[in-house]
Design goal:
Elements (H helix, E strand, L loop, with lengths): L5 H7 L4 H14 L8 H4 L12 H11 L3 E7 L5 H7 L6 H8 E6 L8 H13 L4 E6 L2 E2 L8 E2 L2 E2 H10 L1 E7 H6 L12 E2 L1 H4 L5 E4 L6 H14 L12 H4 L3 H4 L3 H5 L8
Parallel strand pairs: 1-2, 1-3, 3-7, 7-9
Antiparallel strand pairs: 4-8, 5-6
Helix pairs in contact: 2-4, 2-11, 5-11
Length: 267
């Protein structure tokens, strides 16, 4: 794991302390944070155990002490729409996220390499960062007909997922397909598509459903784990409460009219 902290890399880019704190504020908003994870779970210095400490202050200290997070991103039965959603993130931008907070060690769509070279790079990254990387899975995993409906380098998606999941610190199932099976799992489900949770039972898995999920949710969860080493609070469907705890209906400005039974019957 690289020892250089996020703040160290920012300083090398000429980022001032003032701009650094602004970025911390943006990240707090992107992560939907109203409270911080318990210190005993995050592995951060005990000096941060201040009940009145604000989110931005804790994020700043985490960025000063935590190294950048390696990410392995796998794609199976998908349309790459979730990856495209991430590229449209603006709080922070994908560029800032990759350069300053993460090291994306493997992503087929974003990689300059191809073929056996990109597969070799993935294997090297998984060995180097075993037990430390976060695994992002995009797309459902076919298990029918000997799982041969989706293969990469002569290996089935199921085999690739099993290997990558074994060395991951945490797993994010991104999009409806990875989280719940999505369109490929719809009847008659010819490939016998499965979600990540259908196959991975011994690792922490976060579901980020959506077709695609909003980029703020993707950035928020990845950044949360990158800085604090723990996953955000989840609901019974393993979705982060910060982004899936309330519906659009709950937050609608016209909600009072609904509650009062005042409906527009004609237009």
């Amino acid at each position: 794991m690289p020892e250089e902290s996020v703040y160290d890399s920012l300083q090398k880019e000429g980022v001032s302390r003032r701009d650094f704190l602004k970025l911390c504020g943006v990240m707090a908003g992107a992560m939907g944070m109203t409270s911080m994870p318990p210190l005993e779970k995050s592995g951060l210095p005990s000096s941060l155990d201040v009940t009145e400490a604000k989110s931005v202050e804790r994020i700043a200290k985490a960025m000063e002490t935590q190294p950048r997070l390696p990410v392995i991103w796998l794609e199976f039965q998908d349309c790459t729409g979730c990856s495209e959603s991430l590229t449209r993130a603006n709080a922070p931008t994908l560029g800032n996220l990759v350069l300053n907070t993460l090291t994306i060690e493997h992503h087929e769509a974003l990689s300059a390499a191809a073929g056996f070279q990109v597969e070799e790079a993935k294997q090297q990254a998984m060995e180097k960062y075993a037990g430390q990387y976060i695994l992002v899975v995009e797309g459902s995993i076919p298990t029918g007909e000997h799982a041969a409906y989706c293969t990469v380098g002569g290996r089935t998606a199921e085999m690739i997922l099993e290997e990558a999941a074994a060395g991951a610190a945490a797993i994010i199932a991104i999009g409806n397909c990875a989280a719940f099976g999505g369109l490929p799992k719809a009847k008659p489900n010819p490939t016998n598509a499965a979600s990540v949770l259908d196959l991975v039972k011994d690792k922490a898995v976060v579901n980020l459903p959506g077709c695609p999920p909003i980029p703020e949710a993707i950035v928020g969860v990845i950044t949360h784990f990158a800085l604090f080493g723990v996953l955000p609070e989840l609901d019974k469907l393993n979705r982060p409460m910060a982004f899936y705890g309330k519906t659009v209906h709950d937050r609608c400005l016209r909600r009072p009219f609904y509650e009062a039974g005042k409906f527009a019957l004609t237009f």
